[in-house]
Amino acid sequence: MAAIPDTARTALVLGTSGGIGGEVARQLRGAGWQVRALKRNLGGAAGEHGSRDADGIDWIEGDALDRAAVLRAAQGCAVIVHAVNPPGYKRWAEVVLPMIDNTLAAARAVGATVVLPGTVYNFGPETLPRVAEDAPQQPRTRKGAIRVELERRIEAAAAQGTRAIIVRAGDFFGPRVGNSWLAQGMVQPGRPVRTVREPGRPGIGHTWAYVPDVARTMVELIEQRAELAPFARFHMQGHRDADGTQMAAALRRVAERHGLAARRKPFAWPLVWIGALFSTTLREMLEMRYLWRETLELDNARLVRTLGREPHTPLDTALEATLAGLGCLGAPVAALAAGH
C-alpha cells in the first residue's frame, strides 16, 4: 500500500468542546500535532477569533453545519476528527447527516483522513451479545438508523478515495464527560457520591469506554493510518461489566476510599417514562433502553492485531479520575481529573 505523504501534522477536530473531541484534541497536541478546533460564537470562550488556548489548540469561529467554514478550517490538514454531535440527543435527524456530509466534502477537497468515534447504536438485539466490526447493522432506533447511514456515507466516500477510520466503543465516561450515562444516570455531578443508581438488570452485561483510552486508541491509529485499509473500522472492548453490577460496585469502592459511603439504588425508569412525555432527551433515553436489557460485548481482535494491545486504564483508576472531574469526591482530589 502506498504511503500517505505527511507534509503537515495538522488536524481539525470538530466537537472539541465535547468529551471525546476535547480529549482527542489534547492527546493529538501531546503527540506533536497542530490542532484546530471549530466553534460557533467563539467570543470569549477562547479569546479573540483564531486564538490559541492553554492546551495549544487553535480555535476558529465557525459551524460544522456551514460547509464553507469547515472547508476553510480544514485547509492544510492531514486529518479531520468528526466528534461533533447535537447535545442532549436533540435534533439528530436534522443535523447529524448534514454535518458528516460537510466533513467528507472538506476531507475530499484537502486529502484528509476522516476519523470518527463510533457507537453501538448501529446494532440491534439480533446481533448481540458479541459484536465484530462487520456484523450486520440492524438498528431498532432512530438514532441507530442515523448512525448506520452516517457510516454508510463515510464508506461510500472511502470508495471514492477519502480515507477513513472508525473506532466504535461502549458508553463513554471520563473526567470531562458530563453528557454520559455515568454522569447523568448513576451519580450526581457536583455532589459527593452518596447514591449509585443502577440502570441495568443484574445478570445483563454492559460495555463502558473510558474516554482517555478511546482517544489514545484513535491517536495511535491516526499515526498508523498509512498502513490501514482505506475504510478501517475497529472495536474497543473497553471495560466489561459482565453482570451489570460491577460498575456500580467499583463506583462505591472508589467512593469508600475517599470516606464516602454510597448506597446502591435502582435507576428510576418509571420517572423517565413520565418525563419522556415532555422531554426529547428522556424519550431518546427510553429508545436506547434495550442496551440495558441485552448483553453487548465488542470484539476487539482486529484492534489488538493492529496495535498489539488495546489502551486500557484500570477501572478504579479511571473511575477515581472521573468522579474527581465530576466534582463527586470533593475539592482536595480535583487534581486527579487533570492528571488523567
TrEMBL record:
Stretches assigned to the NAD-dependent epimerase/dehydratase domain: 11-226
Q: Which SUPFAM superfamilies match?
A: NAD(P)-binding Rossmann-fold domains
InterPro entries for this protein:
Epimerase_deHydtase, NAD(P)-bd_dom_sf, NAD(P)-dependent_oxidoreduct
Q: Which domain of life is it from?
A: Bacteria
- Listed Pfam families: Epimerase
Q: What's the protein called, per UniProt?
A: Nucleoside-diphosphate-sugar epimerase
What organism is recorded for this protein? Paraburkholderia tropica
